[in-house]
């Protein structure tokens, strides 16, 4: 079978020609094939996203040509996992998705829309939301900073009188700093975006769900919400905090027909840039544990977990924290 951009990285490395090409590319940057172990199941195309702009599409195209005698063969489906949508799963439902302009939020908004839901897509990046609206006609976009009350008010107003689901996906990382090094600016911004904003949006939609006697809320946490060695102090605190918010709300509102759950991702190949000034001590301390990530997921992998808990398929699940991390949390 011809190697394409959708062939898995593992298939490329296993192929005599493809393997030599990939190893040669890695050698140019001083890396080895071992660095790709967590992403062997992902399609080669994912390297463009993961590179955060360092690898242009032309590099992947050139690899495909080189592996196929100068031609780019007709593409095939990925050789690993492929997304299988459930038609009509969100039919008639209005679902708010934050961080919808990119990464996990975009994949979640897309899946809900393709499964019949009315999506209120929120993000601070207005230009990317405009691009999303062309990809997913019919979604409602709201650009704004959800740390500000006026943005939350506009999101709720756009949703209208019925809100069936809320996916709090938006988030940022910190600078990997330990508590003794964490600047006020890093702490305040990470807590505001990762914890306070989702809490306030959840608080805003709960009365509407309560009046309807139904609703589902999904708060994205992280592997850093389950352990102390996955990120810096501010991010770890924010993700532990969102788990606490989730469990408390699940307890309080479960009897009222509202389910509140959380997904805790591990490594995700979304290409989200890290802050420019990283803690040297924190980065060095965390490195061995981050290198133990068994596999890196795509945004679509996480959207599958998120939409499951958000949907009626999870009818009997409330207050759960689903580790969607390839098994990292059991190591």
Sheet with the most strands, sense and barrel status: 7 strands, parallel
CATH superfamily of the largest domain: NAD(P)-binding Rossmann-like Domain
| Strand residue content | 5-15%
CATH class descriptor of the largest domain? Alpha Beta
The CATH architecture category of the largest domain equals 3-Layer(aba) Sandwich
Residue runs with pLDDT of under 50 for 5 or more positions: none
Task: State the domain count.
Answer: 2
What is the radius of gyration computed over CA atoms, rounded to a whole number of angstroms? Answer: 20 Å
List the helices and strands in order.
HHHHEHEHEHEHEHEHHE
Classification by helices and strands: alpha/beta
Report mean pLDDT, rounded to a whole number. Answer: 93
Could you tell me how far the N terminus lies from the C terminus, measured between alpha carbons in angstroms? 36 Å
Provide the CATH topology of the largest domain.
Answer: Rossmann fold
Identify the strand order in the major beta sheet.
Answer: 3-2-1-4-5-6-7
Globally, the shape reads globular
For this entry, give a set of tags:
331 residues, alpha/beta
What does this protein look like?
Strands 3-2-1-4-5-6-7 form a seven-stranded parallel sheet, sandwiched between helices. β1 (94-98), α5 (103-114) and β2 (118-123) form a beta-alpha-beta unit. It has two domains: 9-67, no CATH class; 94-330, NAD(P)-binding Rossmann-like Domain (Rossmann fold, 3-Layer(aba) Sandwich). The two termini are 36 Å apart. The mean pLDDT is 93. The protein is an alpha/beta fold and 331 residues long. It has helices spanning 9-14, 16-28, 46-50, 57-67, 103-114, 126-135, 149-159, 184-212, 233-253, 280-290, 299-310; strands at residues 94-98, 118-123, 140-143, 165-168, 215-220, 258-265, 321-324. Helix content is 43%, strand content 11%.
């Amino acid at each position: 079978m011809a190697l394409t951009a959708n062939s898995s990285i593992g298939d490329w490395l296993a192929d005599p020609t493809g393997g030599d090409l990939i190893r040669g590319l890695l050698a140019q940057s001083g890396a080895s094939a071992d660095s790709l172990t967590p992403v062997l199941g992902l399609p080669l195309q994912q390297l463009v996203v993961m590179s955060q702009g360092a690898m242009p599409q032309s590099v992947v195209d050139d690899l495909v040509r080189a592996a196929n005698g100068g031609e780019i063969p007709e593409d095939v489906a990925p050789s690993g996992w492929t997304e299988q949508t459930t038609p009509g799963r969100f039919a008639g439902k209005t679902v708010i998705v934050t961080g919808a302009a990119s990464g996990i939020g975009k994949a979640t908004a897309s899946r809900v829309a393709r499964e019949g839901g009315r999506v209120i897509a929120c993000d601070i990046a207005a230009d990317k939301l405009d691009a999303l609206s062309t990809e997913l006609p019919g979604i409602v976009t709201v650009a704004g900073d959800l740390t500000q009350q006026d943005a939350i008010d506009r999101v709720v107003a756009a949703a209208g009188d019925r809100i069936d689901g809320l996916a709090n996906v938006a988030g940022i990382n910190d600078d990997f700093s330990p508590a003794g090094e964490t600047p006020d600016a890093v702490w305040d911004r990470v807590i505001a975006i990762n914890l306070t904003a989702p809490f306030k949006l959840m608080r805003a939609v709960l009365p509407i769900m309560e009046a309807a006697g139904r609703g589902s809320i999904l708060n994205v946490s992280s592997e850093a919400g389950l352990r102390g060695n996955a990120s810096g102090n501010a991010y770890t605190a924010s993700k532990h905090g969102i788990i606490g918010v989730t469990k408390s709300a699940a307890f309080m509102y479960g009897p009222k027909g509202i389910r509140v759950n959380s997904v805790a991702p591990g490594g995700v190949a979304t290409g989200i840039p890290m802050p420019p000034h990283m803690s040297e001590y924190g980065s060095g301390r965390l490195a061995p544990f981050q290198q133990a990530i068994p596999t890196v997921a795509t945004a679509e992998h996480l959207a599958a977990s998120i939409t499951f808990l958000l949907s009626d398929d999870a009818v009997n699940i409330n207050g759960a924290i689903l580790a969607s991390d390839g098994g990292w949390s059991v190591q």
